[in-house]
Amino acid sequence: MANRITKGCAMFLRVDKLQIELPAPQRQDPNAAAALQELLGGKYGEMSTLGNYMFQSFNFRSKDKLRPFYSLVAAITAEELGHVELVSNGVAMLANGPDSDADETPGGDISGAPFEDMKDIRLAASFFSGGGGAMPVNSNGQSWNNDFITTTGNVIFDLLHNFHLECGARLHKLRVYESLTDPTGREVCGYLLVRGSVHAHAYALALKKLTGVEIEKMLPTPNIPLGNIPECQKYLEEGAHRRLYTFSPSDYKELTAVWGGEMSLPGDPPGELEVVDGMPEGGKIHQLTGIPSAFAPDYAPEEMFEISQQLYQAARR
Q1: Rounded to an integer, what distance in angstroms lies between the CA atom of residue 215 and that of residue 218?
Q2: Count of domains in the chain?
Q3: Exposed end of the chain (fewer CB within 10 Å): N or C?
């Protein structure tokens, strides 16, 4: 996802990729998917970080006079949209298992209770209502809601809240990581732990610029280095812990005034922090195999596929 503000008009540009490529799940595991839901609709999940930063950026006062801080919140907002998409894909991948060609077959006889096991999974509604997809709920199926959003108009208060939110999100991710064994869920956690550390560091530096308080010395909270987590290693090696992206082709460069010229956190690979125009290269989105017997995309989707293929070919002429 990318966000830009042009001539007073707010826009979001969508790119058909995930921020990283996720490994395929080893097996169908809807209970692991339920655990990962905590990172989507939990108190400190991606819906909360997105909602907080998005509405803070919409409501930000004196944008021109406080441009570096506005640009920081706005750019991170766009990244959080991509995090919502990443976690949602991870949830759906775990709930459905490895991609296959099952959607090429008819639904078959449904009278034999082909999904009898689904009544016993942790979040049965994720199948009955959601068809094995992600929803804005936590690991117990409780709906995410706007009570998790703080947008006061006071810049220091909101930045301090965001710092707290990123530390809480780190705790969430660590606990969910400790509960998972499948590579799909662990990769989601590893990447988000690195990027969440960046965001906590960024908000700490913003607070230091405004108040002089070196709140970044509290990091990492909880006090476990990213280097102890195998799924974080490749992102540390490529320098993802030092980068903030503008998620815009031309806007939000002012966040360099907050992030630029500083050094990475102690315990992380050393190096100078940098602002990168645009977004990460990204990775593919998995197909999510159709399940005709669950009527997704339908019981007999062949005609639907044929129509879609004809429309696709016509559009390419």
Answers
A1: 6
A2: 2
A3: C
The Cα–Cα gap between 156 and 202 comes to 13
In angstroms, how far is the first alpha carbon of the chain from the final one?
29
Domain contains 108 = no
Question: Which residue reads 């929803």 in tokens?
Answer: 135
| pLDDT tens, position by position, 163-185 | 999 999 999 999 999 999 999 99
User: What are φ and ψ of residue 2, in 5° steps?
Assistant: -140, 150
Specify the residue for token string 């959080």.
Answer: 80
Tell me the two tokens of residue 161: 């809240």
Q: For residues 166 and 65, is the Cβ–Cβ distance under 8 A?
A: no
pTM: 0.94
Per-residue burial over 20-56, b if 16 or more Cβ lie within 10 Å, else e, is: bebeebeebbbebbbbbbbbbbbbbbbbbbbbbbbbb
Q: Is the N-terminal amide bond of 222 cis, ω within 30° of 0?
A: yes
Residues 309 and 222 in one domain: no
Reported as a single tens digit per residue, the pLDDT across 113-131 is: 999 999 999 999 999 999 9
Whether 109 maps to a domain, the answer reads no
